[in-house]
Amino acid sequence: MTFDSTTSAVTGTAAVGTNGVITLKNGSATQAIDVVVDAFGYFTAGSSQGGAFTAVQTRLLDTRATSTIAAYGSVNIQVGGANGIPTTFGAAMLNLTATSQAASGYLYAYPTGGPLPETSLDNFQINTTAATSAIIQSSASGSITVVNHSSGTINLIVDLEGWFSTNGCILRRCRPLMPCTPRHQTRPRSREQTPAIRPTPQRHRI
């Protein structure tokens, strides 16, 4: 990810070393940074069992065509039971875009009816457009809830990129998704000067 003198966030999937550790490096030549890492889940190394990933690209929500989400308000989004996705499934891969923000804040996303997670998905600034990708579990009825944690209204765009089944591997080398309770993994401020790790850019229509 790239950053400037603001709070920036990005969601990614990273391979781990044999000791279960990943390394983050600060690529700034002049700026020390603080880093917060949140774990949302993991994939096992099994090759014969587990859920398969199916790519499905469709827009689930665009509040620009309806109404904004109120300050500290939420919206429920039905994912399962439509677009060829069963009501009960493992998790959805989503792209969430916040825009036209009346105040700075961040987003939460979690299974509808479940507890509010400890970790946020997307930090955004006032009057900007900020997007992030995430793998989110749904409720038993196939729904997820997204919360606007800011003191102003926002518009929200949610695009479905695909979904994971709960079992029945249909790919030669699929990997089951093992959810965990989202939590912070923090690292102290570091001044190490090394090249930044940049993810491959993805394009999403807005």
Task: Sum up the structure in keywords.
single chain; 206 residues; mainly beta; Jelly Rolls; four-stranded antiparallel beta sheet; 0% helix; globular
Task: Explain briefly what this protein structure is.
This protein is mostly beta strands and about 210 residues long.
Write the layout of secondary structure elements.
Layout: E1 33-43, E2 53-62, E3 74-78, E4 91-99, E5 105-111, E6 122-124, E7 129-136, E8 143-150, E9 155-164, E10 177-190
Antiparallel strand pairs: 1-10, 2-9, 3-8, 4-7, 4-9, 5-6, 5-8
Describe this structure as you would to a colleague:
This protein is mainly β and 206 residues long. It has a domain at 39-176: Jelly Rolls, CATH 2.60.120. The protein has no helices and 10 strands. A 4-stranded antiparallel β-sheet has the order 2-9-4-7, with no helix packed on it. Mean pLDDT is 78; it is low at 168-177 and 186-205.
CATH architecture of the domain at 39-176: Sandwich
**Helical amount:** under 10%
What integer value in Å does the Rg equal?
A: 18 Å
Nearest-integer average pLDDT: 78
User: Which spans have pLDDT < 50 for at least 5 consecutive residues?
Assistant: 168-177, 186-205
Q: Please give the number of β-strands.
A: 10
Helix/strand/pairing class, anyone? mainly beta
Order of helices and strands: EEEEEEEEEE
**CATH class designation of the domain at 39-176:** Mainly Beta
Major pleated sheet: 4 strands, antiparallel
Question: What's the overall geometry?
Answer: globular
Separate helix tally: 0
Separation of termini?
A: 20 Å
And the CATH topology of the domain at 39-176?
Jelly Rolls
Note the beta-strand portion.
35-45%
Strand order of the largest sheet: 2-9-4-7
